[in-house]
Amino acid sequence: MAMRAYEIRSPDGVDALTLAERDVPEPGPGEVQVRVRASAVNYRDLATIEDPVPRGIRYPTVPNSDAAGEVIAVGEGVASITVGDRVASCFFQHWTDGAITPAAMASALGGAIDGVLAQEVVLAEQGVVPIPAHLDFAAAATLPCAALTAWHAVVEFGALRPGETVLLLGTGGVSIFALQFAKLLGARVVLVSGSDEKIERARGLGADACVNYRSNPDWHEQVLTLTEGAGVDLAIEVGGAGTLERSVAATRVAGRVALIGVLTGGEMNPVMIMRKSIRLQGIYVGSRAMFTRMNHAIAQHRLMPVVDERFTFDDARAAYHAMRAARHFGKLVIELNDAG
After folding, report:
1. Fewer CB within 10 Å, N side or C side of the chain?
2. Which helix (H) or strand (E) holds 103?
3. Which residues are registered as beta bridge partners of 8?
4. Is 84 exposed, middle or buried (0-12, 13-18, 19+ CB in 10 A)?
């Protein structure tokens, strides 16, 4: 039998993605077969498609790390997952708990190994997690990368407490999940965006103070004003080197900065990190154990991921073009096989 899957076959970008036929995969020992119902798109997926050579992508490779669907078969020895379970993929197939390792990093879906933009996939038993019952497949597909990255940054590393203040940059998937998690924890949120329309939507989700960086290029100074000169307790830095200095400037002495993104270029002078005794931590998604803890919180609070736009499987390339256009608020999701 055959199924359809998208493949990266060249460095020629989104429009060169090939919708190909592949043999239906079968699960081996310790593996599960999942019928994919939805796959969310991350900036990392777009970057992998547009620039595969520096990332060592072999041809052909199936893109995307994020999927939600139902288990349709299990391999020998699988005990914790059963046929019919609704599950989401883990970004790293072999990072169960503890600190990340080189071996875990080599198990990243849609990069080091084939991803999930396919009608059916085989994943490790410990490479999937059950999804909260109140979420449909499209919403659940947003959890493996953006949500878990935000959870790792805000909760696992950031240890954000009620009454503390967190700085968020932009309104993409990680930042919007970080906003939702911060509000669950009773924290104050200061959000920076270049769009007044997106700022109003963020206020609707609970953002306490917002700064438009287009009208306030030195936005870090405005953040300091909003915190009475002290700075925020935690900054979720998704821009990279191009915004890191401002984020550090906007963070209090002995504060925390979670470094996630590579959206902007530039260089960073580390002197201010040293002078302010900032704790800077690189965040690379998270482990299965973190994913499980996050899902408990999502289920308990019936949190709803923000899905900005949904695309059909046949029109999947349009989702990556939408990611490049950066007009979205929250997440972009590709739906397969009558997702719901």
Report:
1. N
2. helix 102-105
3. 61
4. exposed
- Helices 219-226 and 241-249: crossing angle in degrees, nearest 10, is 30
Q: Which domains does the chain have, with CATH numbers?
A: 2-142+305-335 (3.90.180.10), 147-282 (3.40.50.720)
Cα separation, 125 vs 142, whole angstroms: 20
Calpha distance 281→257 (Å, rounded): 6
Percentage of residues of the chain with pLDDT beyond 70? 97
- The owner of tokens 């359809």 is 4
Token readout for 172 is 């993409």
Two structure tokens written together for 260: 């996630």
Report the pLDDT value the prediction gives residue 201, as an integer from 0 to 100.
97
Each residue's pLDDT tens digit, 122-143: 999 999 999 999 999 999 999 9
Quick one: average pLDDT of 274-282? 97
- Run of H or E residues at 101: none
Q: Which of 183, 291, 167, 176 is nearest to 230 (CA)?
A: 167
192: phi then psi, degrees, rounded to nearest 5: -110, 130
Where does residue 241 fall: left (phi above 0), alpha (psi -120 to 50 degrees), or beta otherwise?
Answer: alpha
- pLDDT > 80? residue 106: yes
pLDDT for residue 292? 98
Give the tokens for residue 38: 């939805």
Q: Read out DSSP for 207-276?
A: -SEEEETTT-TTHHHHHHHHTTTS-EEEEEE-S-HHHHHHHHHTEEEEEEEEE----S-----THHHHHT
Give the whole-angstrom CA distance, residue 276 versus residue 47.
33
